[in-house]
Specification:
CATH class of the domain at 31-189 in chain A: Alpha Beta
Oligomer: homodimer
Amino acid sequence: MPLINDTAHAFLPYPDAPVPNAPAGPLNGLSFAVKDLFDIAGYPTGGGQPFVLAMSGIKTTTAPTVQKLLDAGARFVGKTVTDELAFSMNGNNAHFGVPINGAAPDRIAGGSSSGSASAVSNNLCDFALGTDTGGSVRAPANHCGLYGIRPTHGRISLAGTLDLAPSYDTCGYFTRDVTIFARVSDVLLGEDSAPLPSKIRLLKPLDIWAMLHADVVAAQSAPLAHVQAVLGSPQNTHIVLDNIDTLFWGFRFIQGREAWQVNGAMIERFCPPLGPGVAERFAWSKTVTDEQHATATAYRERFKKHLADLLGTDGVLVMPTTPDVSPLLGDGGEQLESYRNRSLQMLAISGLSGFPQITLPLGQRNGAPLGLSLLGPAGSDASLIKLAQLIANTP
Amino acid sequence: MPLINDTAHAFLPYPDAPVPNAPAGPLNGLSFAVKDLFDIAGYPTGGGQPFVLAMSGIKTTTAPTVQKLLDAGARFVGKTVTDELAFSMNGNNAHFGVPINGAAPDRIAGGSSSGSASAVSNNLCDFALGTDTGGSVRAPANHCGLYGIRPTHGRISLAGTLDLAPSYDTCGYFTRDVTIFARVSDVLLGEDSAPLPSKIRLLKPLDIWAMLHADVVAAQSAPLAHVQAVLGSPQNTHIVLDNIDTLFWGFRFIQGREAWQVNGAMIERFCPPLGPGVAERFAWSKTVTDEQHATATAYRERFKKHLADLLGTDGVLVMPTTPDVSPLLGDGGEQLESYRNRSLQMLAISGLSGFPQITLPLGQRNGAPLGLSLLGPAGSDASLIKLAQLIANTP
């Protein structure tokens, strides 16, 4: 049973095992939860899939990123529900349920780091680890009204963690509070390899903004105005290379290929009943051809260079995190698949490039949270966090 | 991973943990599997439900019935898939898949001891433990062409085992071979408290036989003739008290009430996504009223006395195990629900009375196995096994 009264269905009810933390340190006094993709000694790692849970056994070592938090004095309170094999954004695991969105209980928490976003948004802990492959931290942060980061690819260790698509997988985290966001970032990110200068160049990608419905643009106008008031007026730009379909499929073919490489043998051996959407996605992943993968990889390299050139050392994109607020809990499979595909178009920019993106809970629409993102060059993660603090702390 | 190459999807892929057995003993040389309802030290107990698996942790003690087999020299080879919370007869676990019926691969193995019946019928072990509450050993034994027993209620210990409906739950087992059936029985049953006399009184319950379609009666005619040739011509009788609906609901109301008492708190706390049929069955179980339960309990007492009087100390019913061969794998929810309800009418006789029933793989229909059952008075289990040997060994 989790240590806390989990009314949000955010946690897995694993038997408590002692997870000692340092008695003092920069995260002293903070509690945290961990997506059930990270190994923690004394616990199984289930990945939201019953066969994976069955095969796991009890881990004897703790993932180094979790250990870093414990060593910094943070207190572990439990492992959180993940979408199945982290290959979904719906926050509805066919085997482990639907973690409640603390900011909009009638809407999905999003995924795949659904339980982590749920735990933080329901005040069940101060921060939580997630992973972000195609948006699995950014989208639930958007949906649950939280700060969230997808760091530069490779910057935070994913050792001791279940893979989904390794060339995209990153370790991110959620907080309600910008100060805690910064404290956790200090521990997990350390110093930037490519810090932003004090005067950054804010860029507004018109092609991404054009993907929004007018109602969403309207809902983003006050948050955007606030960011501009703090960081200066943005230059307009365009970032999509070739067209949005090339970008979308560039992301998906590589993700699918890698997801099948990671999970295909298990799926073919055990024929596990996979949840709605997940089953179809893996079936599709199996069909990705060498040629599709090669074309996508070539596009990814071009896109990464293109975006690196555009950002230079001081460029920061200001853009919507997702196309809209979270879907309603009752939405059907087709609506959710359309939501996922539209979201991925926007979320794939950071995914394909490997560049860091943070989402800030600045907006609202229909009473639900709506995030605004900053995306900077590789290695500028901590600088982005500083900008988030500046934005949050400026009246 | 299981020790054996599990092409039947019968086993849970738990990490191997050593489960020592005695080097010699009456079951020396035999391998066995155990339904994932029994605790075995070094393994979790999942009960076919992901939250139950998550809560389980690793057990530190072994259920005494399993230990008895190990002490008798049998070698444990793995834990087998069960229908979710053992509350289904469909052999299709929404989280852990569909164990293959080794005797009729196009048909369900039946449930809830689906993996145990699958393992034995696919020659993956010599025998397997299951549990039988409403037919969960007898039905899969029928479907997979195996010997199977539901013993006298309470005769074989269920300590260290997940409950479904304790006043019905029993521990049974499956074998392909009558000699092994007898060897395992010697260890688990010991001596009868109420052995049958050498000359038994075979009884044919016409009201139960009348529930069969003519095609099934035809398929049972040769097996029945063989049993009569060995045990003598039966007297005709009628066993249903009041009517079949009273019997059916007598069984179901008590089962539902107890199943909710056992699992309701967990279900209400975690809202686990339950598989098709299972969710509806628990929702119904919650609605069983005190009055329904009291009426059913009174019926059960009357029925038990009625059947005890009818059987005396030498009466043995010869009857079909289930109304027909196993449903096809493609059958839909309504067909399966109808199959379950028709089967329960027949299977509830042993359930309500608590009297032992064994099923013998004597028949076939449409190329699939069809069992014939012997049902005797309380405490006559080992005597029934001797009759099974006599029947099997008479040309």
